[in-house]
User: What shape does this take?
Amino acid sequence: MSGPNDLQALLDEAWRHLTRGVADSRSPARYPTFATVAPDGIPEARTVALRGASRSQSLLEVHTDIATSKVNALQHNPKAAFHVWVPRALLQIRITTCVDIQTGTDIDQQWDRIPEGSRVSYGTQPTPGTPISDVYAYDKPSERDRFAVLRCTVLTIDLVHLGERHRRAEFRHENEWAGTWLAP
Ligand SMILES: Cc1cc2nc3c(=O)[nH]c(=O)nc-3n(C[C@H](O)[C@H](O)[C@H](O)COP(=O)(O)O)c2cc1C
Assistant: This one.
């Protein structure tokens, strides 16, 4: 039985939410906030869809368009953070990662699995964030060469559980995911 003092049970719960997020579009972990640091040092946060979560490989996966700001940011600084709030579990999940930007034939498998209708997320003209003369003055062709997979190696996980007494724990990759309680 796991009690409130069970660090690994808390980590298990966090990974359950992340794994569910990949499979279930109604799960809170489906749409984490993903934060990067722009070359000018300014933090940038945005919603993304969680496309992969592997506890054994300590990996999270996000799909994006290489022409977006987040890719430019990651080329300068590969560190990124994820944030998820799971209301029903009263659990905040904060994750830091180091991101590998994958393109080309390495990601054929992921591209093949994307439905035709969703491929238009990769290739917007003009490129995302460009000022346009009219609200709909853009096209969304599907451009295989603009598709990128962000392979995010998990470095740290910080969990806050709001209970009768709050609990906070941190887990680090470098410590083989041994956790430690923190003052919340
Ligand atoms: C619910 C939701 C899901 C989104 N999923 C993604 C995604 O998986 N990948 C992505 O690149 N952008 C996604 N976006 C768009 C981003 O939030 C963002 O607007 C866009 O990627 C440009 O971000 P950037 O200029 O900061 O790079 C999503 C937006 C919403 C509202």
